[in-house]
Automatic annotation (TrEMBL), chains A, B:
Family assignment from sequence similarity: In the C-terminal section; belongs to the class-I pyridoxal-phosphate-dependent aminotransferase family.
Superkingdom of origin organism: Bacteria
Name by which UniProt lists this protein: PLP-dependent aminotransferase family protein
InterPro entries, sorted: Aminotransferase_I/II_large (IPR004839), HTH_trans_reg/aminotransferase (IPR051446), PyrdxlP-dep_Trfase (IPR015424), PyrdxlP-dep_Trfase_major (IPR015421), Tscrpt_reg_HTH_GntR (IPR000524), WH-like_DNA-bd_sf (IPR036388), WH_DNA-bd_sf (IPR036390)
Length: 463, 463
């Protein structure tokens, strides 16, 4: 009975199909024909299949219905909150274009190296394929991370690195360890929208620091430290999300000096590191892992289908984080996944892939910026690397209205205020230059801008 | 420079080794010899390598030291708390035997089907290998779960199932949604030790219900409902951990009736389902997903190296859980991993593997029970399936003392009180019958029992 139900569920048997013969199925499953006959009889009694005299059993018309349900598309009437972009981007039908999403198209990823790694893994040791692995995560991958830190001049040891199931889970674990409801946390304004969603789940008070072309506004940072005694500051290193800006060495140094004076811990999200053509100054590069905690993942440049992140931090915090990860996830990322990531990182092809990716992205940034400017959409900064362009819409148009109009035509955009704690980024929008190749994007964007423009004019006339 | 540091980190270059020639490395990396020469000069300036006139470059003695650090073994002096068994079992040197751990040896797992699935995946579509996937998790795997629920007679739809990164994370997400600090939660006494660790992280009050051969003590359940107004009850279906007992149909029915009267939600952890020779009555089988939430994973019978769990629950709860999973992990399990699990589940070899596994475990249960009885260690019940034997030690010996003595001889045991909220299981111990083949286990257990016995006698003489 289960075997037939599985076939109905995975659509290998559809409504009206003839079922395998009793003798044939009995032979292939290694059971007696009477067992199959009884199962068919019971399924027929349930109305899942029907018997046709002299001809065999057939799938009943209504049988397949409750099981083969496909996912509904995401609700489009949902409020445009920090979850809006995530859920629209992740769950949209594959034919929907997503210039608002935060990842590269599949054909920009190192698929050849991924396939090599998977084939290698299929020949791997039994225990690698079946065991939980150790509590800190696959040693080979932690060693590679350590080598990267050494390259930055950071002195640390292997027991300061913990693998996690994602960059987001890395941040979540640290927040669970260090935050209590009601604590004050600083973020950039704008910042990655999911920082806001995550911090809301932790019931903390979030304060945004205006983000400038050289990093967070230092005067605002100093004021916030004095006034609010925040427990944490969470920011991006290398390339800021959504602006693509890079903090300068002076900003990094002054942030750390102020953090020390006020005994503040800083979480540096290094997720975009591999998009940098040349490494930029980083908080941990100056501080080590003293008051800086670094988190990151491999989703952006290797694969988002391999969920794996990491935390590098003080040894005593890592010990506590291991217990917390056991309690809440039993172990870390899939050892199979961490092994594939390690294999791709040491695959000769990956370095070349990365170099080609930098060039391809630089080209896409230039081209997208030009096309946006032609529509009156102005990049706030030209990033050194990565896929984001943070842009101001013409004449202060409301980007949420533009995003809603585009969504009605199957294009997911990322309106500015999902990134903003102060809700002051309504005139901004984040574009993913790697997801803008489809001409449909530009036709829809042009129309959506015009629609929003019209509404603004109507409102002005009305007032 | 990075390339050499990576080789030092992953031990492909060790202290004293000769580095590749400048020309050779330049050719293989596709850069000019002068680039390599400059990198070598800088590494030499840092003291990582040294140049030997006329002979090339060599790894300096001290260079490799900070990078090639291996993990330290877990601390053995750690308190025997709910984390003790997890960390000793997961992090122990591979040569250490683990009759206390909660998983099967690698050669008991369906490795042939796993290898087939990985090879198939290496030929999969680009987006499967690189994308986040949708927020509910791989459709193919959810459909298989749904087919299994249908087999139990549970009517539900695909939007009532959410994939998670593990069974533990499934439980954690549900607790984050439904619990607030200070809430009361019922568990079995004894219960899976990590339930206790997880609930501690949620800062709730945990009340244990004595577990009987037919399921939780119903009188204690009714009293607890009346006195404490608990928010949740968390239990195992099919095969209880650690006792291996199965709740009867009467118990399941009465639990649900009482739960309804007191508006209690029950989480049913179905992780051991595939170990059952015949399916037993389950809470969701009677209730559907009304007040029962089912969680589970594939770690025990498919692979623990493929981190993937699930939640089946009310539709509105699943919607909230999706947001919570995005906020705290961005997406669910690796799509690559969920795909491998789905392929193994539909692999013809898996069904046969499962049947053979049931026989092998039945044999191991019998044999282990006999050997334990010969040492005066008495199984509390003979489970219908699975790998656990919950046993009473002779003459009320303290199982923590026995576990510590065994640990000193490199054998990880699972003492009863790590499973017990009331700390009344000191005379019990959980044995994993699949991990008891090594004769060393039996020699050490015999000595550890004798050591604990001696201590008890000495204490009696002293008092």
């Amino acid at each position: 009975m289960a075997a037939i139900r599985v076939r109905l569920a995975n659509r290998s048997l559809a409504s009206g199909d003839r079922l395998p013969s009793i003798r044939g199925l009995a032979a292939s499953m290694g059971v007696s024909p009477s067992t199959i006959a009884e199962a068919y009889d019971r399924l027929a009694a349930e109305g899942v299949i029907r018997s046709q005299r002299g001809s065999g059993f057939y799938v009943a018309r209504r049988a397949a219905a409750p099981l083969v349900l496909a996912d509904a598309e995401p609700r489009r009437d949902r409020a445009v909150d920090p979850f809006w972009v995530s859920r629209q981007s992740l769950d949209a039908d594959p034919r929907i274009t997503r210039p608002g999403c935060g990842w590269l198209p599949a054909d920009w990823m190192p698929t050849a190296a991924l396939r090599r790694a998977l084939r290698g893994l299929a020949r791997g040791a039994d225990d690698l394929l079946t065991d939980y692995g150790n509590t800190r995560g696959t040693l080979a991958l932690r060693r590679l991370l350590l080598a990267g830190f050494a390259e930055e001049g950071i002195v640390c040891t292997i027991d300061q690195v913990l693998l996690t199931t994602s960059g987001t889970q890395a941040l979540d674990l640290v927040c669970r360890l260090l935050l209590r409801p009601g604590d004050i946390v600083l973020v950039d304004d704008p910042c990655y929208f999911n920082f806001r969603a995550l911090l809301r789940a932790h019931q903390v008070t979030v304060i945004g620091l205006p983000y400038t072309q050289t990093g967070p506004d230092l005067a605002a940072f100093e004021t916030a430290l004095g006034q609010h005694r925040p427990r944490l500051y969470i920011t991006n290193s290398a390339l800021h999300n959504p602006t693509g800006a890079t903090p300068t060495l002076q900003t990094v140094h002054r942030l750390l000096t102020l953090a020390k004076t006020h005994d503040l811990t800083i979480i540096e999200d290094d997720i975009f590191a591999d998009f940098e053509p040349e490494p930029s100054p980083r908080l941990a590069g100056l501080d080590g892992f003293d008051r800086v905690i670094r988190i990151g993942s491999f989703s952006k440049t290797i694969s988002a289908s391999l969920r794996c992140g990491y935390i590098a931090a003080r040894r005593d915090w890592i010990e506590d984080l291991i217990d917390l990860q056991i309690a809440t996830n039993f172990s870390g990322p899939s050892p199979v996944v961490a092994e594939v990531v390690a294999r791709v990182l040491t695959d000769g092809g990956y370095r070349k892939h990365k170099q080609a990716l930098h060039l391809r992205l630089a080209h896409a940034r230039q081209e997208t910026a030009e096309r946006l400017r032609a529509l009156g959409v102005e990049p706030w900064a030209m990033p050194r690397g990565g896929f984001t362009l943070w842009c101001r819409l013409p004449d202060g148009l409301d980007s949420t209205a533009v995003a809603k109009a585009a969504m009605a035509e199957d294009v997911v955009l990322a309106p500015g205020n999902v990134f903003s704690t102060s809700q002051t980024a309504g005139a901004f929008m984040r574009f993913n230059v790697a997801q803008c190749a489809d001409p449909h994007v530009w036709a829809v964007l042009r129309r959506a801008l015009a629609t929003a423009q019209q509404k603004t004019v109507q409102q002005e006339h009305a007032s």
